[in-house]
Amino acid sequence: LLNYLFGCRFSTSTGRCTRGIYAAVMKIDHPNYDKLMILDTEGLQSAEKDDQEFDRKITLYCLAVSHIVIINVKGDLHLPLKKLLEICLVSLHELKKAKVGTPDVFICFNQNPRPEKDHFLQQLRDVTGEILAANPDAKDAAALLNLDADRIQAA
Q1: How far apart are CA 62 and CA 41, in angstroms?
Q2: If pLDDT is split at 50, 70 and 90, which confidence band does 49 have?
Q3: pLDDT tens digits for range 86-134
Q4: Phi/psi class of residue 129: alpha, beta or left (left: φ > 0; alpha: ψ in -120 to 50)?
């Protein structure tokens, strides 16, 4: 996805190919910036790795250092991914108290037979509700997933 969107040259293959985080720095023509750093993380919640602590750390890191986050989900948001997002967004809320910015989030629901976005929006509302139920003060963190249909792509 990043190769297609940004012209990066991250290696691709079937199955797991990125280990940890890969980065690409690109020169851009923008009035406020001259370079763009793109981070590509390995797939989360892999059956072959099964390391929830690593998944939490890599997700929170990317949320904390990024201006834009693109989440590429295969199929629907399943329960373990929902829980991962909840934990990381609440942690990001705590980091925000230390002046860490919050990213703009976009989600691509990949390889899903449902073209309608309402189903996916409801899944995100469910996660937002869980975040607010667990921590009512985390409204800014929950707002990261309060997306309109423009920020969701079903493919």
Answers
A1: 9
A2: low
A3: 777 777 777 776 666 778 888 887 777 776 778 888 888 888 888 888 8
A4: alpha
Residue type, 24: A
pLDDT value at residue 31: 92
Q: Which two tokens stand for residue 123?
A: 């899944």
Say if strands 21-27 and 152-154 run parallel, antiparallel, or are unpaired.
unpaired
Q: CA 15, CA 46: separation in Å to the nearest integer?
A: 10
Report the distance separating Cα 33 and Cα 16, nearest Å.
32
Neighbours of 8 (CB within 10 A): 16
Measured in whole angstroms, how far is the alpha carbon of residue 33 from the centre of its chain?
Answer: 23
In order, the DSSP letters of 21-40 are EEEEEEE---SS-SEEEEEE
Model-wide pTM > 0.70: yes
At 57 the three-state DSSP class reads helix
Task: Tell me 149's DSSP state.
Answer: G
| pLDDT at residue 29, rounded to an integer | 92
